[in-house]
């Protein structure tokens, strides 16, 4: 059984556990002198503490946080024969939800989200199927508890698989909450308050982030949930209000709508901040036609519980200057995420954070202000908040620490996808970022908007507009700076192009590429209309 779970975990590509074996190096370099880093950590820090050079630390590497980045780093380090420990502790959400080993992605992020997105897509396919001749004799109905049980069981199998893998790789796992006592010592507490003290030559902080609650909305903490709770609900959330317009908000609203729930998104400003805004508008337009309601330029002021147990939300409409109310079964906050540094006692180690964001400041080698203490993943300042970047950064860090590698993580041209009902995948710069970096005169935007035959002809009720946008330099070889696609399986489509863009692909090369017909992805070879030309980029057909 354990083998089966290990194999399933290894196949589970989005956690990128595969490939670790490939990095196996047989001859680990000599262990660094215990406490060597402390000497560089700043004299002020060391004053009055045990001289690290005088003691032998228990571990070569201690990782605090057993999520995407932390587990990858710990397992990679163990491959080099190093003595490695990983601490992971899940502080229950304000609503009391907790989960197992593996961090955000596995438990309350990518994995349950993608499975619920898949549930919604299946429902849409059932509706489409009737236009293709299928008879669906009974009204299509979705049962939340069945989906939730399947998703939660799958997640639990991944939790177990992670434990098995740590054991197999001889990484010592502690289910304790870690906080620094000094730059080489971490004190951990179990749920029951039992203390363990661990010392290590090198420490990696990979404690990720947690959803924020709004601070000025009465009743927000008492009655609202976040994405940390949504995936673990046993019963349907019912009529749901999601506040915020981040990708987490839109993805959750998308799958809730898709499984037939009355779902509203309340957004104060723009959707998908940081993403290409033309694409973001297409995403929300499609969601509106798909059934998600949007309260734009609105912000909540209070949440109250009614006698019926429903939640009455009061909000202000900034455009109309009015105050409005409605009642919901569930209110979910998706107003951003905060780094999980509160309990780490970073001051005791001298690790510096950005005072505005609270995130840990790191250099290109992921080192913090204390040279033997590193930070990776969502906890770090200026890095993408994505599982694959956390994993890659963790593995490369372990290789630099314990083998001859000097390879740094390259955070440029990282592809990603927003799993809304019509998916949006992108790699490289958005239009806004390209203009900011290169100036509008030096940039060309090639567009194509496609009324997709396969769906919209059959379902006129749906606004289905697939779209490609390519951002290129205008001069010389017209290097591609960014590629954006809205359409089915956008993540699968963009993944391949990410390689081309990483390798410096140009617009003429893309135009010489032969398409695969009939696909949506082939449209990338027909990006002949520039935004500058003002011509309509809409085509019909496939
Ligand atoms: C709803 C949602 C959907 C997402 N979808 C995607 C997606 O589709 N694709 C994608 O790439 N990314 C996605 N992400 C982001 C992704 O989950 C994160 O970027 C990734 O998990 C970050 O990994 P990490 O190692 O930095 O931290 P985490 O995975 O968050 O792990 C940190 C771990 O440290 C533990 N911890 C915290 N403090 C302590 C302490 N003091 N002692 C011990 N343990 C501690 C935490 O409990 C947690 O287990 C999504 C996130 C959310 C919320």
From TrEMBL:
<dbReference type="InterPro" id="IPR046952">
    <property type="entry name" value="GSHR/TRXR-like"/>
</dbReference>
<keyword id="KW-0285">Flavoprotein</keyword>
<feature type="domain" description="Pyridine nucleotide-disulphide oxidoreductase dimerisation">
    <location>
        <begin position="414"/>
        <end position="526"/>
    </location>
</feature>
<dbReference type="GO" id="GO:0006749">
    <property type="term" value="P:glutathione metabolic process"/>
</dbReference>
<dbReference type="GO" id="GO:0005829">
    <property type="term" value="C:cytosol"/>
</dbReference>
<dbReference type="Pfam" id="PF07992">
    <property type="entry name" value="Pyr_redox_2"/>
</dbReference>
<feature type="domain" description="FAD/NAD(P)-binding">
    <location>
        <begin position="59"/>
        <end position="394"/>
    </location>
</feature>
<feature type="binding site">
    <location>
        <position position="378"/>
    </location>
    <ligand>
        <name>FAD</name>
    </ligand>
</feature>
<dbReference type="InterPro" id="IPR004099">
    <property type="entry name" value="Pyr_nucl-diS_OxRdtase_dimer"/>
</dbReference>
<dbReference type="GO" id="GO:0045454">
    <property type="term" value="P:cell redox homeostasis"/>
</dbReference>
<dbReference type="GO" id="GO:0005739">
    <property type="term" value="C:mitochondrion"/>
</dbReference>
<keyword id="KW-0560">Oxidoreductase</keyword>
<feature type="disulfide bond" description="Redox-active">
    <location>
        <begin position="105"/>
        <end position="110"/>
    </location>
</feature>
<dbReference type="GO" id="GO:0034599">
    <property type="term" value="P:cellular response to oxidative stress"/>
</dbReference>
<protein>
    <recommendedName>
        <fullName>thioredoxin-disulfide reductase (NADPH)</fullName>
        <ecNumber>1.8.1.9</ecNumber>
    </recommendedName>
</protein>
<keyword id="KW-0676">Redox-active center</keyword>
<dbReference type="InterPro" id="IPR001100">
    <property type="entry name" value="Pyr_nuc-diS_OxRdtase"/>
</dbReference>
<feature type="binding site">
    <location>
        <position position="114"/>
    </location>
    <ligand>
        <name>FAD</name>
    </ligand>
</feature>
<keyword id="KW-0547">Nucleotide-binding</keyword>
<keyword id="KW-0712">Selenocysteine</keyword>
<dbReference type="GO" id="GO:0004362">
    <property type="term" value="F:glutathione-disulfide reductase (NADPH) activity"/>
</dbReference>
<dbReference type="InterPro" id="IPR006338">
    <property type="entry name" value="Thioredoxin/glutathione_Rdtase"/>
</dbReference>
<feature type="binding site">
    <location>
        <begin position="244"/>
        <end position="251"/>
    </location>
    <ligand>
        <name>NAD(+)</name>
    </ligand>
</feature>
<feature type="binding site">
    <location>
        <position position="336"/>
    </location>
    <ligand>
        <name>NAD(+)</name>
    </ligand>
</feature>
<dbReference type="InterPro" id="IPR016156">
    <property type="entry name" value="FAD/NAD-linked_Rdtase_dimer_sf"/>
</dbReference>
<dbReference type="Pfam" id="PF02852">
    <property type="entry name" value="Pyr_redox_dim"/>
</dbReference>
<feature type="active site" description="Proton acceptor">
    <location>
        <position position="517"/>
    </location>
</feature>
<keyword id="KW-0521">NADP</keyword>
<dbReference type="GO" id="GO:0004791">
    <property type="term" value="F:thioredoxin-disulfide reductase (NADPH) activity"/>
</dbReference>
<dbReference type="InterPro" id="IPR012999">
    <property type="entry name" value="Pyr_OxRdtase_I_AS"/>
</dbReference>
<keyword id="KW-1015">Disulfide bond</keyword>
<comment type="similarity">
    <text>Belongs to the class-I pyridine nucleotide-disulfide oxidoreductase family.</text>
</comment>
<keyword id="KW-0520">NAD</keyword>
<dbReference type="GO" id="GO:0050660">
    <property type="term" value="F:flavin adenine dinucleotide binding"/>
</dbReference>
<dbReference type="InterPro" id="IPR023753">
    <property type="entry name" value="FAD/NAD-binding_dom"/>
</dbReference>
<feature type="binding site">
    <location>
        <position position="178"/>
    </location>
    <ligand>
        <name>FAD</name>
    </ligand>
</feature>
<dbReference type="InterPro" id="IPR036188">
    <property type="entry name" value="FAD/NAD-bd_sf"/>
</dbReference>
<keyword id="KW-0274">FAD</keyword>
């Amino acid at each position: 059984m354990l083998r089966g779970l290990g194999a399933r975990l290894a196949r589970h590509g989005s956690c990128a556990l595969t490939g670790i074996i490939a990095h196996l190096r047989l001859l680990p370099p000599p262990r660094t002198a215990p406490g060597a880093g402390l000497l560089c950590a700043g004299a002020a820090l060391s004053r009055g503490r045990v001289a690290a050079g005088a003691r032998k630390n228990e571990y070569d590497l201690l990782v605090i946080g057993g999520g995407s980045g932390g587990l990858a780093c710990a397992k990679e380090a163990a491959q080099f024969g190093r003595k490695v420990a990983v601490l992971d502790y899940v502080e229950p959400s304000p609503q009391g939800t907790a989960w197992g080993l593996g961090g955000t992605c596995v438990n309350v992020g990518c994995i349950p989200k993608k499975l619920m997105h898949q549930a919604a897509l299946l429902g849409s396919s059932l509706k489409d199927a009737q236009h293709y001749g299928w008879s669906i004799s009974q009204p299509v109905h979705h049962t939340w508890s069945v989906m939730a049980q399947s998703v939660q069981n799958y997640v639990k199998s991944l939790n177990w698989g992670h434990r098995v893998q740590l054991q197999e790789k001889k990484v010592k796992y502690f289910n304790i909450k870690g906080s620094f006592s000094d730059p080489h010592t971490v004190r951990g507490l179990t749920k029951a308050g039992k203390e363990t003290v661990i010392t290590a030559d090198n420490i990696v902080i990979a404690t990720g982030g947690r959803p924020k609650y709004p601070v000025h909305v009465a009743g927000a903490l008492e009655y609202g949930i976040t994405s940390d709770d949504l995936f673990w609900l046993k019963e349907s959330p019912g009529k749901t209000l999601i506040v915020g317009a981040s990708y987490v908000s839109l993805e959750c609203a998308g799958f809730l709508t898709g499984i037939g729930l009355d779902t509203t998104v309340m957004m104060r400003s723009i959707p998908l901040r940081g993403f290409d805004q033309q694409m973001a508008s297409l995403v929300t337009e499609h969601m509106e036609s798909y059934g998600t309601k949007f309260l734009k330029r609105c912000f909540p002021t209070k949440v109250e519980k009614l006698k019926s147990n429903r939640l009455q939300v009061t909000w202000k409409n900034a455009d109309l200057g009015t105050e409005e109310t409605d009642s919901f079964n569930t209110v979910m906050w998706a107003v951003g995420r905060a780094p999980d540094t509160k309990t780490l006692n970073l001051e005791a180690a001298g690790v510096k954070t950005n005072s505005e964001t609270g995130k840990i400041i790191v250099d290109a080698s992921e080192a913090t202000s204390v040279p033997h203490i590193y930070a990776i993943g969502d906890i770090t300042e200026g890095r993408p908040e994505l599982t694959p970047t956390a994993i890659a950064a963790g593995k490369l860090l372990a290789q630099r620490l314990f083998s001859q590698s000097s390879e740094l993580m390259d955070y440029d041209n990282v592809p990603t996808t927003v799993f809304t009902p019509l998916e949006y995948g992108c790699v490289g710069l958005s239009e806004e970022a390209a203009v900011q970096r290169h100036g509008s005169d030096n940039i060309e935007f090639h567009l194509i908007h496609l009324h997709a035959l396969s769906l919209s002809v059959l379902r006129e009720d749906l606004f289905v507009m697939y779209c490609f946008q390519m951002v290129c330099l205008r001069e010389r070889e017209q290097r591609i700076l960014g590629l954006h696609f809205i359409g089915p399986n956008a993540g699968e489509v963009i993944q391949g192009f990410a390689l081309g863009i990483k390798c410096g692909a140009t617009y003429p090369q893309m135009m010489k590429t032969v398409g695969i017909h009939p696909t949506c992805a082939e449209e990338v070879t027909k990006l002949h209309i520039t935004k500058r030309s003002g011509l309509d980029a809409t085509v019909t057909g496939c």
